[in-house]
Amino acid sequence: MATPTEEAIWEALRQVEDPDFEQDVVSLGFIQDLELKKNKVSFVFGPDTPLCPGRKEVAEKARAAVEGVEGVKKVEMNMEARIKSHQVQQGVQLMEGVKNVVAVASGKGGVGKSTTAVNLALGLAACGAKVGILDADIYGPSIPRMLGVSGKPTSKDGKTLEPKEAYGLKAMSIGFLIDEETPMVWRGPMVMQALEQLLGDTNWGELDYLVVDLPPGTGDTQLTLSQKVPLTGAVIVSTPQDIALLDARRGFQMFEKVGVPSLGIVENMSLFICPSCGEETDIFSHGGGQKFADDYGVEFLGSIPLDADIREQADTGHPTVVAGPDSRQAEIYRTIANAVAVEIAKQGEDHSHKFPNISIQAD
Ligand SMILES: Nc1ncnc2c1ncn2[C@@H]1O[C@H](COP(=O)(O)OP(=O)(O)OP(=O)(O)O)[C@@H](O)[C@H]1O
């Protein structure tokens, strides 16, 4: 029987493409620690994303490709997500231990930004990533309600704040510190300061992704906030009407101004799924998100239907990804989480030098 060569194995692996990246697994650097001992091959499948189902399928194709090399008798493959840090510095302090910071934003309020942020965070965690969520929505912090957690944060050392834990996520919210009834007029400047503290003083530990739920809109407050965080990139959530009104475009323009890469757009409340018969209705002419993405050269990350379960679950502290993990809706959120992770991985490791540092005052 022929003895396999390393070259033949690498060549076989080069034929395996990851459809999300449209590149082969060798060029992507996903194959590591390859060893050949006589007829036995071992390697690590170590993508720069969590091990979402799509990535595991690619790993299995890689294993099959190696098994198909003449002379190979045994293949030992270990799958291990090796997520890299892609923080963009923008003149602010990088957050130690936090590999990627993802802003979730929207052109206006009420489009489902927080619901999407929570389910995105849980979708990333469902793929095995270490995930945190920071509720920076100073005008209407809803993460505590959506995760079913409340109360003032504690501190072990009198210096750093301990995040709350919910469904495997580490969570910190401005809502833990202020009373929901506190009038807005008091909140602006005080809350901005508190937010800076939450960002810098929270004991996040080691995180692959920190999802930041920004306040709705694209004004100075959002700009200032985006500049206080070393964002890896931004996800814009829009409804079909919002896309038509080009509110979404303003979101992208805001991030462009401060040099934050756009990871893509999520179209929320697009199709209506009838709760009794399951029929899908195109109330707001769904599909605008894809067209928007094509027109403006941004990634289309997916559409989420307008669905009574999503609303009920988010509003009662059991977001869809954990309340109904086998549902089609949860699968949609996990697919979006994978798409976001893929876009982050495509960012490259350090682009801090590429971007200008524009200083904008808070309003
Ligand atoms: N896909 C969906 N289907 C049905 N209801 C949804 C969906 N997404 C969000 N909702 C509901 O819409 C309401 C607004 O959602 P959410 O609080 O996430 O919006 P938001 O954009 O963060 O709003 P704001 O920033 O103004 O607080 C909530 O009651 C939520 O449960």
TrEMBL record:
Keywords: ATP-binding, Hydrolase, Iron, Iron-sulfur, Metal-binding, Nucleotide-binding
Keyword Nucleotide-binding in record: yes
Entries under CDD domains matching the protein: Mrp_NBP35
Binding-site positions, ATP: 107-114
UniProt cross-references to Gene3D superfamilies, sorted A to Z: Fe-S cluster assembly (FSCA) (3.30.300.130), P-loop containing nucleotide triphosphate hydrolases (3.40.50.300)
UniProt xrefs under Pfam families: FeS_assembly_P, ParA
Every MIP18 family-like domain range: 6-76
Family: In the N-terminal section; belongs to the MIP18 family. Belongs to the Mrp/NBP35 ATP-binding proteins family.
Assembly and oligomerization: Homodimer.
NCBIfam families: PRK11670.1 (NF008669)
Function: Binds and transfers iron-sulfur (Fe-S) clusters to target apoproteins. Can hydrolyze ATP.
The name this protein goes by in its record: Iron-sulfur cluster carrier protein
Organism listed in the record: Thiohalorhabdus methylotrophus
Record lineage: Bacteria, Pseudomonadati, Pseudomonadota, Gammaproteobacteria, Thiohalorhabdales
Gene: apbC
